Amino acid sequence: MESFSYPDAAKVLADRNVTVKSGDGHIALVDCASGPSLLHVLSRVASPSEVCFKITGPTGYLAVEIPKVYNIRGNDNSVKATLNTAGNITSVDVSKNLWTPVGESVGDATTLLELTATDGPAAPAPSGDFPAVGTVTVDQPGRNANAKACTATLVDRNWVLTAASCFGDKPAAGAPAVKSTATFGGRTVGIAELAPRTDRDLVMARLTLPVNDVTPVTVGATEPAAGESLKVAGYGRTATEWTPFKVHATTHTVGSVAATSVDTAPAAGQAPVCQGDAGAPLLRDKNGATEIAAVASRSWQGGCLGTPATETRTGSSAARVDDLGAWVKELGLRTADVKPGTHVQIVGVNSALWDTVTDKASGWLGTWSPIDSSALTAVDSVAIGDTVHVFVVGAGRVYTKDGKVGGNWTPWREVPGGAAGVLGITATARGNTVSLQIIGSDATVWDSTADYANGTGSWSGWVKLGDNTAKYLSSATTPDNTVRLYSVGTDGRVYTRDKLTNGQWTPWGEIPGGAVGVNGITAAARGYTVDLQIIGGIGDLFTTYGHYDQGRWDQQWQKVSDNRLKAISSSAEGNIVHLVAVNEDYKVYSRDADYNAGKWTPWTEIPGGAVGVKAITATTTG
Which of 45, 120, 373, 504 is found 20 to 30 A from 547 (Cα to Cα)? Predict the structure, then answer.
């Protein structure tokens, strides 16, 4: 990692009688005849007496110790000189392109301690070859003995992957011990959280703001092989540069491979891994895409700027990442941000959960965001204010997670009660309480409630609702806080019962209209009116209405479309019901029952390219 100590400082002291200590790499000691716009310092002890510095970046800092300084000539930049005159520390603005006398009033007692520059030359544009490769900086470069800089790779819009040693010997999980930042494409953001590995020199660092204009790099799943060529992309020192502004690449060949690490050496004619390259990705091309095979950790640094000439070893060691794909993915999914609007979650072809959202202002998000999960068979969701509560059946058990608008999804947690072999699920909210019903392994219906007033959910436990059996469930809540539960029985007919505010359940009753052979159901409440849709025996869509303010149901089911649907869900937003469905092509479509306009909108595919969808749910945040 880059320690910001000045390269070859001992040689400079021996040759010039000038002590250069540390800096950010953007103020360098140079030959006074090397070019224009240099900063000139006159000293009675330096050899030669005129010492020159070049400013190479927009800002610069250098800690030095040059005794008996008496005159400083500025260049085109704004420069401050920190001086010690007989124990009195002062800061002097150096006049641009003019000599500024210093220390003459007390003879030869003034020592130059620091040079600080602003409005220096603009940094060159970042290289376009490796846009997802950037840097992390820990503490103040050159101003603190513990300051470090490493290379890092964006592996998620909110997370970077780098060497854990950049943050100390054994960095703790959580917020960094000192202020730390990451820079990608010239943009610098803070680091809010560290997630270090304990088995290798590797850490995931969460950014305070997402990087949206750079495509993250995928973590590979293939073990590095002896003799394999990998490209190391880093911002570390080269043979001649201290802190380069542009990423540089070198090719290394894999040597020995251990359980969590791999040794490499530069290929013929290639450069070693140097200070500042710790955390750099070792990249391979696979099927036309780039992936990370390992992350640079340690190096002998032979031939790097500042390394003694006696050190000729160039080998290095890197941390393997090919077995960490699930870890990287889990952290990334934990910080997937939650947007406002109507959320649609699906169980996709890989039996994992995906989320998208639409709102009135901008329409559909256009992409499906994965939510860490697997082996799912059913899903439902409900919104309480600005928080989406998702409930799934995974391997027959019931799990939940929450997503607060403007925040992130919480980790999965199992709904207490030990339910197993679950076949279906539905959820609805009344106030801060979620009413959750499931179809058990014997097709009977069970009920539990959670009070989310404390934010995490306090569950009541599962209670069996009699011996009636069901294939599908849906539910809605009317303004009197009555939970309306709807069931497609194992006989293919549609039934309902209510959970009153005192916790008591009314008996089951069949919905009028004589529906049979039903293969799916969804309910959404518009005030005291519940829109109830079902999938008929051949996949066509029907609707009916429960008028709870009048104590009656429509007596017939109305056919809405001739599609061959596989699953449906709905969500009410004011006087509009958003209906989402999985069609016979196993893609996802939506349409609205717009009661303001008095019509149904046409079916349209939800953007994002979802295929092979097995289950679906929709809910709208307040």
Answer: 504
**In the block, residue with structure tokens 């703001």:** 209
Who contacts 608 (Cβ-Cβ below 8 Å, separation ≥6)? 356, 364, 365, 366, 367, 368
DSSP secondary structure string for all residues of 245-261: SS-EEEEEEEEEE-SSE
CA atoms within 13 A on the CB side of 595: 14
pLDDT, tens digit (0-9, with 9 covering 90-100), for 18-34: 999 999 999 999 999 99
Rg (CA), the chain: 33
Supply the pLDDT for residue 336: 65
Taken in order of first residue, the domains within the chain and their CATH numbers are: 9-118 (2.60.20.30), 124-335 (2.40.10.120), 362-582 (2.120.10.70)
pLDDT at 371: 78
Examine the pLDDT at 424 and tell me if it is beyond 90.
yes
Provide the token pair at 601.
């909108």
CB 236 within 8 A of CB 273: yes
Burial 215-224 (b: 16+ CB within 10 A, else e): ebbebbeeeb
Q: How many CB atoms lie within 10 A of CB 82?
A: 16
Dihedral angle over CA of 32, 35, 36, 42, nearest 10: 0
From the number of C-beta atoms within 10 Å of its C-beta (0-12, 13-18, 19+), residue 597 rates as: exposed
CA distance between the termini of the chain: 48
Q: Using an 8 Å Cβ cutoff, are 298 and 169 in contact?
A: no
Nearest to 75 by CA among 47, 62, 91, 56: 56
Range 190-207 burial, b when 16+ CB lie within 10 A, else e: ebbbbbbeeebbbbbbbb
Given a cut of 80, is residue 335 above it in pLDDT?
Answer: no
Q: Tell me the C-alpha distance between 112 and 69, whole Å.
A: 6
**Separation CA 274–CA 295 (nearest Å):** 14
**Tokens 């393997």 — which residue?**
320
Pairing outcome for strands 218-219 and 289-299: parallel
Alpha-carbon distance of 533 to 518, in angstroms, equals 10
Q: What is the pLDDT of residues 520-575, one digit of tens each?
A: 999 999 999 999 999 999 999 999 999 999 999 999 999 999 999 999 999 999 99
- pTM, two decimals, is 0.65
Euclidean distance between CA atoms 164 and 619, whole angstroms: 40
